[in-house]
Amino acid sequence: MYHVYFLHRYSRLLEESAGRSSAKYSWMLMYAMTCLILMSPLVSMPFLGHPLSCTLVYIWSRRNPDTRLSFLGLVLFAAPYLPWVLMGFSLVLHGTVPKDEIMGILVGHVWYYFNDIYPPLHGGSRPFDPPMWWRRIFGMFFGAFGDCICGCGLVMRHEC
Predict the structure, then answer these.
(1) Number of structural domains, the chain?
(2) Which pLDDT score, from 0 to 100, does residue 6 have?
(3) Which of 7, 60, 85, 152 has the fewest C-beta atoms lying within 10 Å of its C-beta?
């Protein structure tokens, strides 16, 4: 049940940190879901909700290194350790290595690296940004600053 909470909470926080950019946030979800679906046959995992929530928790935790958290009111730690604390809790609770959490952390780390670490090192290049056609799809419905971005890509300063 706490995975549903994590999915909701960290989805909201990540979308808000993306500047309310539905295109960027949905592209991240599409990337995560695609990677998890491609990895699932390798680990025989048919249900991917838990790895998806772990991906979102990992990305949020890396982007908020100064946030302090408490686990069950017992342990205080910095946000970047949240995925590892949850993995340790799962290991203690179930007695096995949590493959689903490892998958989520791996997918989240690749996204985090190419969106937050790679660009400053390579002249601002952002290989994981959504393509223009994806942004146009979301722009038709959610134009920035009250603009309406129509299907042909024109920005109009009035309602469509």
Answers:
(1) 2
(2) 67
(3) 152
Structure tokens at 94: 């179930």
| Same domain as 149, residue 120 | no
Q: How confident is the model over 67-87, as pLDDT tens digits?
A: 888 877 788 889 899 889 888
DSSP 8-state class, residue 71: E
User: Could you tell me the pTM of the whole model?
Assistant: 0.77
68 and 79 in contact (C-beta within 8 Å)?
yes
Question: How many angstroms separate the CA atoms of 94 and 90, rounded?
Answer: 6
In a shared domain, residues 72 and 151: no
Q: Supply the Cα-derived Rg of the chain in whole angstroms.
A: 18
**What pLDDT score does 152 carry?**
47
The b-or-e profile of 76-107 (16+ CB within 10 A means b, else e) is eeebbebbeebbebbeeeeeeebebbbbbbbb
